[in-house]
Structures are given as C-alpha cells and as structure tokens.
Specification:
It is a single chain. 42% of the residues lie in helices and 11% in strands. By secondary structure, the protein is an alpha/beta fold. It folds into three domains: 121 residues, no CATH class; 155 residues, Rossmann fold (3-Layer(aba) Sandwich); 108 residues, no CATH class. A five-stranded parallel sheet has the order 7-6-5-8-9. Helix 1 links the parallel strand 1 and strand 2. The termini are far apart.
C-alpha cells in the first residue's frame, strides 16, 4: 500500500514530511512552493460561486492524478500491475465525503485499474477574501479537450442554443502543444455560431516535477485518472450557473471494446464509459455537489458525429474545423523531431478518426506522420502502430460475449451497445478495405 496526502496547508505538509507518515505529500497552494503547476488555487475562487462539494471534488481528482503519476507500475504497455493506493485529502466537509469513500474508491478504481482507499480530513478555511465577481449566466458548459469529438460537441451545442445565449468551454492541458489547438477551436466557434457567446476557461494544472524537499518525483506515464480532473473542473464551472456539463465523445470509443486479449491493461480506458459517467454523477449528487453530466453522442459512432457537423456547417467547413483538432494518443512525437501537436496516424485515436472522416465523406486535411515520405519518423510510427490489431478487430467484428464484458450500466441495453460497436467496426473495416 502506497500512502499519499493532498493538503492545502503548508504547516500540515511540513508536519507530514517530518513525521514520514506518507510515502508522498502533495501541497496545493497559491505559493511558489506548491506541488502543482498553474495559477488555479485550491479554493477555486477565481471561477465564481463554485459549489463547495465541487471544490472538494477538484481536490480529490487532483490528488488522485498526482498519486497516479507518482507511483510506478511494475509493467508497461498491456502488461501492468494493479496498485494499492491510499489517498488522504483535505476537504471542506470530511464527514460527508467519508460517507461515500467506499463508492469513490470503486469509481476511481474502475477508471485507473487500481485498488484505492480514501480518507478525508478538515481543510483550513481560506485566508484570502475573494473579490466579488460578476454573476455568470451561460446556458451550458462543454468540455473542449482539443480532440475532434469535443470540438464537434462544442459546435453542435453552440448552434443549438438560442440567439443571445452563451456557453462555457472548459479546457485542461498538460502538454503545451494542446493549448494553441484549444484556443484556435474556441475562436473558430465564433464564426460558426456568431450569435452565441463563448466563455473559454483554459486550465494548466498538473503535478510538478519536484517534491517539497527538492527531490524528483517518480513519473508513471499511464495516468488514466487524468480525465477525472478534467470532468471535475468542468463540473465546477457548470456549478456556478447550475447548468449541464456536456462531455462529447462518440459512443463506440466510450465503450472501448477490447481489440483482443493482449490489448487490455494500460491500453484500455474508461474515461467516458457510460457506467463511469453515471456513477460519477450519482456520487457527486449524493454529497450535495453539482453532478449533471450529459454525453448526447453516446449512441453514435465517430463517423456519425462528423456527419452531424457536416449537416450543420457543410462539408468544406467541417473539413477545415475537424482537421484542426488533435486525436492522437501520443504526445512524444516531438522527441523524434516532429512538430508539437503532430498526429502519428497509426494509434487507436488516429485510426478511428481517419475512418470517421472517410465514413462521413469529409476530406481529412490532417498531416499524419505515417504519410511522411522523408523517412524521418519511420521508427516512431512503427513503434506506435496498432494498425494490425485494428485490422484484425475490424475483420473479426464484435461478438455478443464481448459486449457482455463491458460493465454496462443498468439503463444501457446490451443490444444497443452491440449495434453501436458493429457500426464502429464497419467504419474501420471500410477504411482498411
């Protein structure tokens, strides 16, 4: 069992280090000594009147991500171990959160594939009196990651809203290559929905490289819990206006059917799985937080989502808009000499994306490293490629027993999941043909 602490008190952080009572201590504050990057404080006062339980949720999510990043797994790729992780978090209402600690552990474990335990202690009150902020009045909050699905969702959402209304866009990034992509999409939305205002919140918050004593943190690359922080930030922003949070993701990727028996473990994710989203909403609402989450596209393939964008703005505009997004699973191409934000073209995200463009009849203007003719990226592309297992998956298709292993929530019919996955596999098969 690895024991970690997230505290917002410098005195408590120093005491924990002196007592050696935790394996890792994370201190979140406004000061330069903080364990985290970014300017967002642990009280979220800069966002406006955030529900206090949503403030707590962001702390929990950040602590989980820091723990996830700081405890190495024994294996790599599809061969990894399940870790035993215990996280103590300072929150505003430890009694309420202690009442759901077991369910929270199951929820986060479903996301990361580990065994978690949570303990909650009282956080000190903020000593800084926040300045009054103007009241917010947006009608919807939408996560904008920089990927094609989130961009499609933001555009469709904006065009659905009434003239004179507004929506809040929430972006979070650890790789700085994503920042300009997110900003560009936010600006482009103004051209596609000029009568709806876009309020863009862009967060850069992540665990730093050094511990409080100056030593270097260990760095685990899998970090499947990062999506919990993204969702928590989105819910915090949504709570200020008491509006729904849209997380736009095609249903095929959300169900994430296994490509084969050897493609599980770290290569599988439950980021937008319907069970995870429903369980997260239920838990947040149980503690009195704002938990209204919607994925309006959970019954669609990516190609079907792209087709909706084309219906809204036309083929040429949708080609330009969607091609400006980034769906690549790999952010390390720059170490091979590629431009930051490059797309490999051969990972799961890129292949599903390329198949979606083809299925929707939309020209794909993305420059993929796999199409580079100079040979500079051949080794990188070969190392990242899952073309062969994706081809095998598309040819073999989805069986009913594959669907029964997906941990579907009670309100999600297995037949619907089967038909959706088969349509997703059809898109891939047509692309590889």
């Amino acid at each position: 069992m690895t024991r970690c602490l997230l505290t917002v008190s410098e005195a408590d952080a120093d005491a924990a280090i002196t007592a050696a009572s935790f394996d890792e201590v994370f201190f979140w504050s406004r000061s330069a000594r903080s364990s985290f990057t970014g300017t967002l404080s642990p009280y979220l006062e800069s966002l406006g009147p955030v529900n206090p339980r949503n403030v707590d949720l962001v702390r929990i999510a950040l602590g989980a991500l820091a723990t996830d990043r700081s405890v190495l797994r024994e294996g790599g790729g599809a061969s990894w171990n399940t870790r035993d992780l215990e996280l103590t978090v300072q929150v505003d209402d430890p009694t309420t959160w202690s009442g759901v600690a077991g369910d929270l552990a199951i929820l986060v474990g479903f996301l990361s594939g580990d065994r978690w335990a949570f303990t909650f202690t009282q956080a000190p009150a903020d000593t800084v009196e926040p300045l009054p902020l103007p009241a917010v009045d947006y009608q919807r909050t939408v996560l904008l990651s920089g990927g094609a699905d989130s961009a499609a969702g933001a555009l469709i959402s904006a065009r659905q809203l009434d003239e004179g209304s507004s929506q809040a866009l929430v972006s979070q990034y650890s790789s700085t290559a994503l920042s300009p992509i997110q900003q560009g999409l936010g600006k482009a939305l103004g051209g596609y929905a000029p009568r709806v205002a876009q309020i863009h919140h862009q967060f850069h918050i992540n665990r730093g490289s050094r511990r409080l004593d100056g030593s270097i943190f260990r760095d685990e690359p899998s970090t499947r819990s990062r999506s919990l922080l993204f969702l928590s930030l989105g819910l915090a922003v949504a709570s200020c206006a008491n509006v729904p949070l849209w997380i736009a993701e095609n249903g095929f990727a959300s169900l994430n059917p296994s490509l084969g028996a050897d493609r599980r473990g770290a290569l599988s994710t439950h980021t937008t799985h319907p069970r995870f989203l429903r369980d997260l909403q239920a838990l947040v609402e149980r503690v009195g937080g704002h938990g209204h989450i919607e994925n309006p596209f959970e019954s669609l393939t990516k190609g079907e989502m792209f087709a909706l964008v084309a219906e809204e703005v036309g083929t040429d505009a949708s080609s330009a808009y969607l091609s400006a997004t980034n769906s690549c699973s790999h952010t390390d191409a720059r170490y091979s000499g590629a431009q930051p934000g490059s797309s490999c073209g051969v990972c799961f995200g890129c292949l599903v994306r390329r198949a979606a463009f083809a299925a929707a009849g939309i020209p794909d203007r993305t420059e993929y490293l796999c199409d580079d003719t100079t040979g500079r990226f051949t080794n990188f592309v070969q190392q990242k490629s899952i073309v062969d297992p994706m081809c095998d998956f598309a040819i073999g298709g989805i069986r009913p027993r594959d669907v029964m292993a997906m941990s579907l929530p009670a309100d999600y019919a297995a037949t619907d999941a089967l038909h959706l996955c088969r349509r997703g596999a059809d898109e891939l098969r047509s692309f590889f043909a």
